[in-house]
Structures are given as structure tokens and as C-alpha cells.
Amino acid sequence: MTRWQVLATVGLFAALSVAPSARAATDGPAPPSIEFSFDGPFGRLDRAAAIRGFEVYRNVCAVCHGLRYMAWRNLAELGFAEDDIRRLAADTLVLDGPDDTGEMFERAGRPSDPLIPEPFPNAKAAAAANNGVAPPDLSLKVLERGAPYVYGILIGYEDPPEGVDTGASYYNAYFPGSVIAMPQPLWGEDVTYADGTAATIEQEAHDVATFLAWAADPSADERKRMGLRVLVFLLVMTGVFYATYRRTWKPVKRGDDDL
Known about the structure:
This protein is mainly alpha-helical. The chain is built from eight helices and six strands, in the order H-H-E-H-E-E-E-H-H-H-E-E-H-H.
């Protein structure tokens, strides 16, 4: 393996290991400077924060935003027991059907159902209920914008500066254009954390961003671990190949020098 191959491998690993929080949006105001446990190639998900973020999302964000790419059974990856997953899923009502008479019906949720179902029947109904803007599904939002962006939007609500008219919308210092249709979702103490963590606006925003980072890329930790193993293997094999090269060709070079 050549030196350039090694460098290319290291560069590829670094690119693939960039945490979602580092993929910040390139347009609009710069997001706030905040560190997450999963930042960088050696970072790992804070599962306690992700679990707290799930509670905030389920009790606050799910009123407007779905999470269509995650199912209840995926919570097992965060450490939820199967019985707890079945219980949580059964506490939700899911529209299903049609039945034998052609009618839709509601039933208790199952582990295979979407973790957060779409809260509106269609995009037009969603827009009509939210200042004319349909709330997006947030399954991949952290991959698209970065965790600091999500955090910034949640803590960025302020009174508009003098001369700025937001109309029926709201002022947010971290939203592109600063005028956002979504009302402030977090106020602090929106949930009671089971682990006793104080539920400030900043803490809730941090936890939701962590949960969405996991939802967008559940295999990030495993991918990083695999990348490190591959990198170590390649470095070791490079040393072995180089030692073999020196051992094999050294006698030949000596022979040339004697001539």
C-alpha cells in the first residue's frame, strides 16, 4: 500500500466520521457554538440525553412534527426493554385500514408502527393549522442542517428588534431570515425528566437535538467504531508490508552496491 493510499484512507475515514453536529447549514445566521457528545470521529452518543430528548419530542414536538423513518422497535437501540416498547406503542392510536367494510379505523400502536406518526392527514391540513406552512418531518433534519442548528432554532426566540414586523409569525435569531412561522415550542419545564435533570429550555433543546441526531443516523457509533478498527488494521498492515519490503529487497540492494 502506497503512502497516498494510506492518506486517502485516513481522509475518507475522517469524512465519514464527521458527526451530524458538524454539518452546519451554510446559509442564514451561524448556529450557536455548542458541543455534543457525538462530535468528531471519537465522539459517542449520550444515550441518557437521547432518551430525555425522546420524551421532549413525544410530548412537545410530536404535536406538529412526525418522525416517519423510525419505528417504536428502534428504541431498543437506546436501551428500552421490549415490554416498555410495546407499552409505549400501545398508548398511541394509529389509523389503519380499510377494514372489511372499506372503512378506516383506529387501533393501538405496535412496535413496528412509526415512532411518531404524522400528526396531520395531509400537507394542506398541516399548513392550514400552522400559519400556512406545513411542519416538516424531522427524521433527517440533523443530517440536513446539523445539531447546532436544531438547538439554535429551539432557543432562538426573541422579541423582534425595533422596526421589524413579523406579522403573524415569530422572530428567531437563528432562523434564516429571522422570521419563522413556528411558535416557540419550548418554555422550560415542559416535561419532568425521570432522571431528575433540570428541564431548562437549553437542556430540553440540547436533548432534542441529541435525540434527532440518533434518529437521523442510528448506526453512527458503530460506523465510527468500525472505521477506527479499519484504520488501525490498515496502519498495522502498512507497517508489515513496509518491513517485508525492506527485508526482501535489502539483499538485492547490497548486491548492487558490491558490483
